[in-house]
Amino acid sequence: MITKARILVVDDEESIRDLLEIGLSHRGFEVRTCADSASALDVVGSFHPHAAIIDVMMPGEDGFQLSRRLRQYPDLYIMMLTARDAISDRVQGLNGGADDYLVKPFDFDELVARINAGLRRVNREDSNLIRYGPLTMDDASHRVTNQDAQVTLTAKEYELLRYLLLNPRIVLSKAQILQHVWGYDYPGDDNLVEVHVSSLRDKLKDRQKTLIQTVRGFGYRLGE
Question: What is the CATH number of the domain that holds 27?
Fold first, then answer.
């Protein structure tokens, strides 16, 4: 399940970056832009994009090379965006790891439709997965990974993390967490939530409390 798809745009033309950032943001995507391959490689590990729109002709490492590098992320949908319309260029891009190829000038609605279709294809086989940043939760196997390392959780820790994952960046009160994870009639108190949040942070190596954030006087939220 993707709560809000993240799109990485890599293009050396500022006007194209601005157009895509504004347009895709208005369509509900979270967008990050880069002007070259080097900065894109720096960003991808922390931004964890679901899709990348990559210009072919860029200074330094071109889009073909970047696409091949990004294939180490198997769930990443890659679209090549270029003014070059030769069949050989399309073949090179698709053989190099791209999933789709769109020629400039392009229709923005077609771009969005292709992205949505690509994301559906990529995620059709893992509809049981919940992803957020470095975290992946598999509801079928109850397996949780953080930065691809498996994390062993108790049943209640799993339910607590799942509740946070399904409500990213939303502040959840201790009362809401108690009701959702332990049930409406559970005679517990706020300390129970605090203990489980602390245990989750330890197991997720969230020592700086940036992943599970405390909002004083309100509760907790899943941060960036």
Answer: 3.40.50.2300
